[in-house]
Amino acid sequence: xxxxxxxxxxxxxxxxxxxxxxxxxxxxxxxxxxxxxxxxxxxxxxxxxxxxxxxxxxxxxxxxxxxxxxxxxxxxxxxxxxxxxxxxxxxxxxxxxxxxxxxxxxxxxxxxxxxxxxxxxxxxxxxxxxxxxxxxxxxxxxxxxxxxxxxxxxxxxxxxxxxxxxxxxxxxxxxxxxxxxxxxxxxxxxxxxxxxxxxxxxxxxxxxxxxxxxxxxxxxxxxxxxxxxxxxxxxxxxxxxxxxxxxxxxxxxxxxxxxxxxxxxxxxxxxxxxxxxxxxxxxxxxxxxxxxxxxxxxxxxxxxxxxxxxxxxxxxxxxxxxxxxxxxxxxxxxxxxxxxxxxxxxxxxxxxxxxxxxxxxxxxxxxxxxxxxxxxxxxxxxxxxxxxxxxxxxxxxxxxxxxxxxxxxxxxxxxxxxxxxxxxxxxxxxxxxxxxxxxxxxxxxxxxxxxxxxxxxxxxxxxx
Length: 464
What we know:
Blueprint: E1 5-11, H1 17-20, H2 25-31, E2 34-40, E3 52-55, H3 62-83, H4 100-115, H5 118-134, H6 137-149, E4 153-156, H7 165-173, E5 178-181, E6 199-202, H8 205-214, E7 223-225, H9 243-250, E8 257-262, H10 272-288, E9 293-298, H11 309-314, E10 319-321, E11 327-328, E12 336-337, H12 340-351, E13 355-358, H13 363-369, E14 374-377, H14 391-395, E15 410-412, H15 418-427, H16 430-443, H17 451-463
Parallel strand pairs: 1-2, 1-4, 2-3, 4-5, 5-6, 6-7, 8-9, 8-13, 9-10, 13-14, 14-15
Antiparallel strand pairs: 11-12
InterPro entries: TagF_C
Keywords: Transferase
GO molecular function, one term: transferase activity
């Protein structure tokens, strides 16, 4: 009997859980005669879901992390010069340098940026990151696991974490083919490509061209178009609840229609509480004219701040907060992990809302799949929390240039426009939804519910 092919799905952090542990990804692979094992660097217990896992223990060298920091800075500088576009400088986040250690690390990183310019300099930084990891115990532990398991293929769920370098480098040193999935539609312009692999799985031809533009040392044959599994649960009818059941479970009023306000993280939209308050005031005014509207507030899953508390208390008769069901495993944002339960919660929040209001969120695509419109906030709040911040800065990011026409959403360009734009979205959502789906089909290959199958077909093709 022919032995099964073996794949290790590398989970360097929790962001890959949603795409590859909470969808039918594993089941599809097993049906195609693969033995699927998660190489799990997260605190999430995947055996509880019935999956095989090997716990991945250890962390990257501090030196490697410094090299990564320098690579990102140098890459953004290179993009700025190469494309003659200052937008890439806006992706830089300055680390806290309040203490001596922070200042020393910042100085070392800046020195590396200065001495590693252009494609040649970036190549040296990538090489140095792998060389650095080869000297550590973490790399040796990874190599031992790989020698024992002898997998046919390594699939990394995320191209960003520095902790993925050692296991992928160990696999490459042993001659095991490696790959990574580009996690999000906005990642490539931000210089988040931390790992180097033999193959890269992308959402669309648009993303393939983007990757080859930013990383010319990668060959087109290495970049495989599959789509993203993140949209697959939207097509799973078993996850959908009836209106009465969902409303009863969440304490909603069946006589009302609900507008979803999806919050951003505090960096992307520091004035979100004011926007929520503005929307609530408009809803109150519309209800005085005969509408029967309420707001579902879904905060950003990694935002545990109290910044919305005053607004929620002020409008407690209008706003129902339905918090994402994510698991907090640590204090940093990337230690907050998604759960399978939240998939169903998000899907039913979309299904039973009329529209979504937010600032620059990719929820536009999730709502479009369900035939629901999106309204983008695009005006300055009256009392700004960060004087230098502006919504225009966010909409100027490179990934928004993928919009086919710029009319895929209802743009709210002032507080005074909320009422008219919201009424229009409720009365005539159709055209915007069609345009939003055209945008989705540009950045993510259609049909959206077949991404997992396409990924496995490409993996089979590589191995065979």
